[in-house]
Here is the input.
Amino acid sequence: MDYKAEIARVLSEFLPYEEAYSLLVPPKDIALGDICMPCFRLAKAWRKSPVAIAEELAGKIQKPPFVEEIKAVAGYLNFRYSSSNFASEVIGKVLEKGADYGRSDKGQGQAVCIDYSSINIAKPFHIGHLSTTVLGAALYRLYRALGYNAVGINHLGDWGTQFGKLIVAYHKWSNREDIERGGVRRLVEIYVKFHQEAELHPELDDEARDWFRRLEEGDSEAYALWQWFKEITLKDDLPIYERLGVRFDSFAGESFYNDKMQAVIDELEEKNLLVDSEGARIVELEGMAPCIIVKRDGATLYATRDLAAAFYRKQHYDFVKCLYVVAYQQNLHFKQWFSVVDRMGYDWAKQLEHVAFGMVSLEEGAMSTRKGNAVWLVDVLDKAVEKALAIIHEKSPHLANATDVAEMVGVGSVIFSALINNRIKDIEFKYDKILNFDGETCPYVQYTHARCLSVLGKAGEVDLSGADYSSLSDDVSKDIVRSLERYPALLLEAADKNEPSFITRHVVDLAKLYNKFYFDNKILSAPDGVREARLALTRAVATVIENGFAIIGIRLPDQM
Here is the structure.
């Protein structure tokens, strides 16, 4: 039963079903009920105070069998479900659906493009790429869980004058064997050396521009080196994606749109939207700086490529949403070129969304590829796993698969650190904090899940048909059932706001509730009927933790 929908149907005698459904929310104080309707938005239309409306409805509504109490409190209409029926229905549904609990077909037949990670070729896959990578991947899995055809796109930074610099650096200070041996780290080293030398010898910049010109013109040597640099980079970076559990459907980067930009420029010209400005071609925008489409020297910009990419994706995928998971520093950039699409007369401009997020930093401070002090993400993962293994050896010295568990805990903790808080919040990355086994951390949730499996393993085969769900009448059991019931709606909210932290937070809160339940209640030694109900609750909790962390992208050890 969809309890929210059923309550909305009860209320539809007094106001439209859709309005009632949209007004229903969980109460701030769960002691008041399981769901409530604030009556404040009805006051103007009904010409009554919210308090009077709530009291009037409470007196008029015929209480359905699944509702135990209807109560008006301070302008809120509160509903408390019959605890026995509610627990039986919710837990039964979780156990029946298993890994599919929370999934839906809401987005069936609709495409959502998600542009995330977007690493730069021949540059480090550094800690600054963490948020875009794991946030985008979580959204990808979330939209898929809701039935959408999610398309994961890694818009590689594989074009620009930096490749001219890299070719010059390669010719002067390296060779093929050197690069094959050192991989992308060696490419970064010679790139850094170029910038150091160019400060003393500015003519190097002229050489770099000439090589990039040759690349743009299709010079065979320049093109072969550029292609090889891409291969070297992806060879090093793909294992990191695999380790993070991140996948893509497309690696079409900036270079892919080289032959697609002119069509956009021509259309802007035809629609009289391009304006000359000191030799550059721009589109003027209301309320913000103009969007530069072509620079004075005839070169295109990120905005030009993003426009070409958006038109290609709309034509190729016919998306209902196209998400750009990029840091908030690029807010203006996206507002500008989104507005250009709108000025071109395309109503799908409103389907373009910038999913902004805060910055990630380490205690060591700021990073710069040019200065050679970027922090590699693989080093962060390795260090987190190393520290996790040390903690496991201390806490569980006899754990058989300690190395595998440390990988799950360490990598999971890095992912978790980027997805536990609202995405717009800046993150300062601290190993000791993220690897804490107590509090709101990844190891805490992983340990709680392992605890659930341990209880279920000790119970052995159990016939749950004899479960006495009326025994789940204590406050914490009721809170757990409410949390389980809310999970499917929470996925929809997370997608609506492109906010995976809703899921992470929900799973953390559920783990906290279960641990309180575990310490407050006997499970294996409980009387018949009560034992089965508590084991069913345990299995349901484990299932929702598994489902939530599967979307977040964190693996769960069976033992810890």
Remarks:
- The mean pLDDT is 93.
